[in-house]
Amino acid sequence: MPYNVESFNLDHTKVHAPYLRIAGKKTGKCGDHITKFDIRLCQPNLAFMGTGALHTIEHIFAETIRDVLDKDSVIDFSPMGCRTGFYLTLFGDLKEQDILDPILQVFRTIAAWDKPIPAQSEIECGNYRDMDLPEAKRLAKEFVEGIERKGWNPFEA
User: Fold this and answer.
1) How many CA atoms lie within 13 A of 121 on its CB side?
2) Helix, strand or coil for residue 30?
3) Is 1's pLDDT higher than 80?
4) Which of 16, 17, 94, 116 could form a disulfide bond with 40, CB atoms 3.0-4.6 angstroms apart?
5) Are 23 and 37 in contact (CB under 8 A)?
6) Given CA atoms 67, 77, 101, 95 in this order, what sign does their dihedral have?
7) pLDDT tens figures, 6-36
8) Among candidate residues 103, 99, 119, the one with its CA nearest the CA of residue 111
9) DSSP letters spanning 57-124
10) Parallel, antiparallel, or unpaired for β 74-79 and 33-40?
């Protein structure tokens, strides 16, 4: 029986992280096109990110992607509950190839991050103490190296 949630219908035993895939496309009532991407860093059911690293990547990526892409095209960047990756939702009828280079650029930026983590204060974040920059940098570097080695396709090892 198919589920309402797209990712629940994905066979997580058939994908090979790291990868980038389209998780959904929608056209709004006013004709706006929206594309949601699955950015997977960890192999499902074998590895997952600690909350500090996940939270750090979320903060840096969410801030930096808006410098790399037209910030009005970015709807949301959010972590997956399973802690294996993130969802990036953008305006536009897009393909993986359209955003792969900007995503890699942001992950390269995270891997080399040497500034304060954006919005890491009690005022700006609801759990500002739960950050792990060294692990976030390691995961970002591994994501870039994995994509450069194997490509973005989730179904190719």
Assistant:
1) 5
2) coil
3) no
4) 17
5) yes
6) negative
7) 999 899 999 999 999 999 999 999 999 999 9
8) 103
9) HHHHHHHHHHHHS-GGGEEEEEE-TTSSEEEEEEES---HHHHHHHHHHHHHHHHT--SPPTT-STTT
10) unpaired
